[in-house]
Amino acid sequence: MKSLRCILAYPKILPSRLFHGFYKNNHVRCFATSSSVQFPIQRVGIDANEEFIQVKYQNGETESFPWHFLQDNCTCPECFHTASQSRTKRMTTLDLSKSVKSASVTDNETAVKLTWSDGHEGTFSEEWLKARSFSKANQNFRRTGFRDEPELVRSNYPIRRLDFQEVLQDDAKLLCCLKDLCKIGVVILENARKEVGQLKELANKIGFIRTTHYGNEFTVQSIPDAVNLAYTSTALTVHTDLPYYVSPPGVQALHCIKQFYGEADKNLGGESHLVDGFIVAHHMKENYPELYETLCNTPVEFYDIGEDYTKFYKIHHSPTFVTSPSTGNLTRIVYSNQQLSSYLPIDLHKAKLLYRAMKCFTDLCYHENYLMRFKLCEGEVLIFDNWRFLHGRSEFDPSKGERHLEGCYFDWDEVISRVRVLEN
Ligand SMILES: [Fe+2]
Ligand SMILES: [Zn+2]
Hints:
The chain is an alpha+beta fold.
């Protein structure tokens, strides 16, 4: 009964369990139950400076945990609300003068029981403690998802093709699709019905669509009086979509309903272009470091004004290469030749270098080693990482045939969350 009480006091699904499998490294262990204790505890002590408790496991490993951290994260029902997976203890009531009066091993060597100086008692399971180890390695597992370790791809990369209906019906196929999207950044689904509404069905499996001022699903078709170049037949330089949003949609899906085939003997125009911006940025970092740094450090203005799903007037300043302040790693490409504003928020003496950098980046995107060129077939759905891949298309002649795509966006939050749900 004692160990049952102990389990009920802890989160039903521990975060370590939620993340298990999302990492390529198998260091993160499987969910342990009270009947399969992985790290029995030998003893627990308090350090001489009275700042940490020290847990020694039976396998010889020792881990330290700060007192303040344990007080803040007490897992008892008084301090932690299991259903919402949230602490009920407030930072305002945290007492930093409180000390650990005693620490002991309990529940058949599966937990540590602390008694605090004010008499409060809290128990921490070996699993809870192990999963929250302060070791660098453990912390990296929590941080690292597929999108943080991309596999860079060149123009000859064989994009994975999956059956659209199978992805809708089989969670294993959906998971395969989403994992490729995270890691590789692009995937193609085949055999969707050649009619609008297919993306909505896909969205229902992933989570939900990211609505923008172009609506939920948008139609890419050559139309008169278009408010976006995408809705014309002109060529589009490779770009990321919606660079004028503070947080542009992470993922884009394009469903080809009707493809442009031109004249019978010349299948020219309406070709899709796709390039892994990360590999191009990497090339620049290696070969043109000054230009790479310029694109990391120079915000430019993107804007969009008009009326579609709603009236809109968006302005956002972003560097072309967005990097993580903590790691310096590239996290996002924000680039669109057509949406680059003529209001340039930089020192005029830096314009020359900026233009050299943007030109270098764009030209490299079109290098045969990097630019994928293909023509989507009717019924195919192209899904790609809009924070990483740039896309474009070649011009086509609308008097010689139609071209009709339906598109939508997703946020990375929903996609990555769906991966974790499907894996667990
Ligand atoms: Fe686009
Ligand atoms: Zn408590």
